[in-house]
Amino acid sequence: MLRSQMVTPDRALAGRDASPFAVPATHAVLGTPLAGPWPEGTAVIHLALGCFWGAEKAFWQTPGVVTTAAGYQGGYTPFPTYEEVCTGLTGHAETVLVAYDPAVLPHAELLATFWMLHDPTQGFRQGNDVGTQYRSAIYWTTPEQEAAARATRELYQGELRRAGYGDVTTEIRRAGGTPGPDAAGPFYYAEAYHQQYLHKVPHGYCPVHSTGVACPLPG
C-alpha cells in the first residue's frame, strides 16, 4: 500500500472503541480547555494543511482563537495512533481543531489564513512530507463555514492560477457523520506530546509551505 494513495474502507485498520491515551485538559499556551466547554458563541472548524505542529502554532497565535488541538480526521479508523496514521492505512489527515470567536475572527478571515499557510495544490503532500496524512482539507461544522470555505477557495484558486499554480486539491467536507464523500467522520485528538508541540519543543520541525500568494476576502 502506497502512502500516497487513499486507503479504501475495507483495507483500513480496525482501530478501537476508545482512545488508547490521555489528552491534556487545557491548552499549554492559551490555558483554555482542549475539548471544551468553551464560551457561548464559539465556533469550531477542523483544518488540515500538512504537518499539524506548525499549523497548530500558527492558529493559536491568531487573535480570536479560543483553543487549538492536534488530531486526526477524514479517515476510517476509530481512535487511531500516530504510528497507525503514518502507515497511510487509516485514511486520516493530520488536522488542527480550531475553536474561535467569529465576532473577533470572521469565518472568511480564518479561512484566508488557512489558505495562505500552505500550498493547497499539492495533493497528498506538503513539501517533503508525502502521504495522505499531509493532504489539505477543511472539515466544517456550520453552513456558514461551508459557504466561506467554498467562496474563499474560488477566490484563492483564481489568485493561484494567476501566479502559475495548478488546481486546488483541498477537500471540503462536513465534520462528523459516517466517513464518506460528504462527511469526514469524527475528530480524534492526537497523543499528548503532539499537543502544542512547538511550544514544548521551540526549535522543533516547523516547515513553511506557503505559496506567498495572498487570499482575497469575499465581497
Q: Please, could you describe this protein's structure?
A:
This protein has 219 residues and is an alpha+beta fold. The protein has a single domain (41-199), classed as Peptide methionine sulphoxide reductase MsrA (Peptide Methionine Sulfoxide Reductase, Chain A). The protein has helices at residues 52-60, 82-86, 107-116, 143-162, 197-200; strands at residues 43-49, 65-73, 93-100, 125-126, 129-130, 136-140, 171-174, 188-189. The strands form 2 sheets. A 6-stranded mixed sheet has the order 7-6-1-3-2-8, covered by helices on one side.
Series of H and E elements: EHEHEHEEEHEEH
Estimated share of beta-strand residues:
15-25%
Number of domains: 1
CATH superfamily: Peptide methionine sulphoxide reductase MsrA
CATH topology: Peptide Methionine Sulfoxide Reductase, Chain A
Mean pLDDT: 96
Describe the structure concisely for a colleague.
By secondary structure, the chain is an alpha+beta fold. It contains five helices and eight strands. The protein has helices spanning 52-60, 82-86, 107-116, 143-162, 197-200, and strands at residues 43-49, 65-73, 93-100, 125-126, 129-130, 136-140, 171-174, 188-189.
Task: Note the topology.
Layout: E1 43-49, H1 52-60, E2 65-73, H2 82-86, E3 93-100, H3 107-116, E4 125-126, E5 129-130, E6 136-140, H4 143-162, E7 171-174, E8 188-189, H5 197-200
Parallel strand pairs: 6-7
Antiparallel strand pairs: 1-3, 1-6, 2-3, 2-8, 4-5
Which key features would you list for this structure?
single chain; 219 residues; Peptide Methionine Sulfoxide Reductase, Chain A; 6-stranded mixed β-sheet; two-stranded antiparallel sheet; 5 helices; 8 strands
